[in-house]
Amino acid sequence: MPGFIPWPEPWAERYRRAGHWRGDTFGGLLRALAGRFGGRTALVDGERRWSYRDLDQKADRLAAGFARLGLGPRDAVVVQLPNTAEFFAVIFALFRLGALPVFALPAHRSLEIRYFCEFTRAKAYVIPGAATGFDYRGLASGIRDTVSSVEHVIVAGESPGASGGVIALDDLLDEPHDQFVSSAGPTGGDVAFFQLSGGSTGVPKLIPRTHDDYILSLRGSVEICGLDDTSVYLAVLPVAHNFPLSSPGTLGTLLAGGTVVLAPRPSPDEAFPLIERERVTITAVVPPLALVWLEAAATLRHDLSSLRVLQVGGAKFGPEAAARVKPTLGCQLQQVFGMAEGLVNYTRLDDPDDIVIHTQGRPISPDDEILVVDDDDREVPAGAVGHLLTRGPYTIRGYYDSPEHNARAFTPDGFYRTGDLVRLTPLGYLVVEGRAKDQINRGGDKVAAEEVENHILAHPAVRDVAVVAMPDAFLGERTCAFVIARGAAPKGVEITRFLRDRGLAAYKIPDRVEFVDAFPETGVGKVSKKTLRAAIAAKSRGGAPS
Questions:
Q1: What's the distance, CA 323 to chain centroid?
Q2: Which of 54, 221, 241, 274 has minimal CB crowding within 10 Å?
């Protein structure tokens, strides 16, 4: 596949011999699961309950419907759906067809969606219906008018016969189809889908994940997290995100024969009743949401006794908050640290509290290779803080069609530069100390400073800008834009409105705008973002920078 960097054959053969890669595909796995679990509940979406057999049949019918539209193997399809059962019918249909879902998030707007469609030459774009509170149809209309490759806009959650130049997803289910099989694969080594990086420069890079490597990650996660056919997973985070998709997430739960319960929103007043009603055993949240749940548990009276595991990931979870999970919620905390590019680390369910509270876990696979190095790529002494590099059977060897970026993001021998600063404990657990990349982790949403800076620089009243992280007790980090105006400074609200009008996702718009006359500089004349971060941290505390 052009633009995809595969594992070198000696490494691929090693992973096959070790049993990591077994040649399975997602379409084939669903077929086997439907045969094994049949009428057992796979998905709960509100009052709707789909069995494994239902999901398998809907995937077959949708695959046939997509094929009638002219979609085929290796055709990219941007999928932007919320936490609904249709998300799974769509992606398994595309897997079965050999087409390639591009997992957009509900928060993405025109700037990101246009890029995904253009870069992948997507032939179709799948959106939610009108009940979401945002005009995805209007967004899709603009995309179709400006991206020539997009031939079809497909709307989920609307009645058949949709108008306005779009196709209702249900219209593609109008004919029964028995066991759809694509005439051209796919195979286990083929790319299954594209995820999105949280990169530090520009719009997200595309991460090609193969059936083999992702299914390996799922199998390992299911084993580590103790899932089986009695497990009930509550999906409260956006299901297209890597964490709730695969760690072990929704796909891991299905692989184990369990039940996935879909929450439309993550607030405790919606999630807690679902935990009680569906007897949820495991769920996953980001640190800011964990803090909200911990506070709500003291006032909302719901039976959470079925909950065995609360996973927290997406950003570092402070030890003080981590120590509150077991006494407050009555369940085991599991810290998860990973990335859509591959490597995933877990604290184990039988680890002592000290490890669970103070580390971010250890890797899934014994063949995950970890290096902690200094700025010159020399390994640091044991226990010292350094840059995390990794290589392994489910960590990509390169972003899709991005040779220049790959030259910086990967070493010549295939190690991925994660951009994380970590230290390694004597027992092989990682403790995350921060980020080396110019990236802001806003409650689990990654914001590339350079991308936001480039958009702000397009404002006619802006001469220069530097975007940095500022500490926040709730989200961990928020964004602050330091702006040097050209002439009279505009109001901060004008900057944010300008970014919103450019189609930037809401979570990327700076939380605060500060106007300054000049930027502090390093000894070599570069903008000192370290000084700016210290300044805004001190200002937010009401003090002066040290």
A1: 26
A2: 54
Burial 342-380 (b: 16+ CB within 10 A, else e): bbbbbbbeebeeebbbebbbbbbbebbbbbbbeeeeeee
Q: How confident is the model at residue 544 (pLDDT cuts 50, 70, 90)?
A: very low
**How many CA atoms does the CB half-sphere of 198 hold within 13 Å?**
27
Q: How far apart, in whole angstroms, are the C-alpha atoms of residue 11 and residue 27? A: 25
Selection from 439, 336, 344 nearest residue 390 by Cα: 344
What confidence tier does 200 reach under pLDDT thresholds 50, 70, 90? low
DSSP-derived 3-state class of residue 312: strand
Stated pTM of the model: 0.88
From CA 19, how far away is CA 252, in angstroms rounded? 18
Confidence of residue 185 (pLDDT cuts 50, 70, 90): confident
Q: Which residue do the tokens 């002494």 mark? A: 381
**Where are the strands (E) in 436-490, listed by range?**
439-442, 445-448, 462-472, 476-485
Neighbours of 434 (CB within 10 A): 13
Q: Is-contact 282 225, C-beta < 8 A?
A: yes
CB of 283 closer than 8 Å to CB of 311:
yes
- Cβ neighbours for 390, distance < 8 A, ≥ 6 positions apart: 342, 343, 363, 368, 369, 370, 371, 415, 416, 418
Query: What torsion do the CA atoms of 475, 481, 482, 483 make, to the nearest 10 degrees?
Result: -170
Q: What is the DSSP letter of 190?
A: S
* Range 190-216 burial, b when 16+ CB lie within 10 A, else e: bbbbbbbbbbbbebbbbbbbbbbbbbb
Closest CA to 136 of 207, 192, 58, 81: 81
pLDDT for the residue 202: 65
pLDDT digits (tens, 9 = 90+) for 425-446: 999 999 998 777 678 989 989 8
Using DSSP bridges, classify how beta strands 476-485 and 462-472 pair: parallel, antiparallel or unpaired: antiparallel
What does 261-300 look like in DSSP terms, one character per residue?
Answer: EE-SS--HHHHHHHHHHHT--EEEE-HHHHHHHHHHTTT-
Element housing 338 (H / E): strand 332-338
What's 62-100 look like in SS3? HHHHHHHCCCCCCCEEEECCCCCHHHHHHHHHHHHHCCE
Name the range with the highest mean pLDDT among 130-144, 150-164, 268-282.
268-282
Question: What is the distance between the alpha carbons of residues 181 and 58, in angstroms, rounded to a whole number?
Answer: 14
| Residues 509, 512: Cα–Cα separation, whole Å | 9
For the stretch 116-119, contacts whose Cβ atoms lie closer than 8 Å and that sit 24 or more positions apart, written own/partner, are: 116/78, 116/196, 116/206, 117/78, 117/143, 117/147, 117/149, 117/150, 118/147, 118/149, 119/206, 119/401
Residue count of the chain: 546
Q: Residue 97's CB: how many other CB atoms inside 10 A? A: 28
Instruction: Give yes or no for residue 171 having a pLDDT over 70.
Output: yes
Query: How far is it, in rounded angstroms, from Cα 308 to Cα 489?
Result: 53
Q: Would you state the pLDDT for residue 176?
A: 67
Position 53 scores a pLDDT of: 97
Higher pLDDT: 264 or 522? It is 264
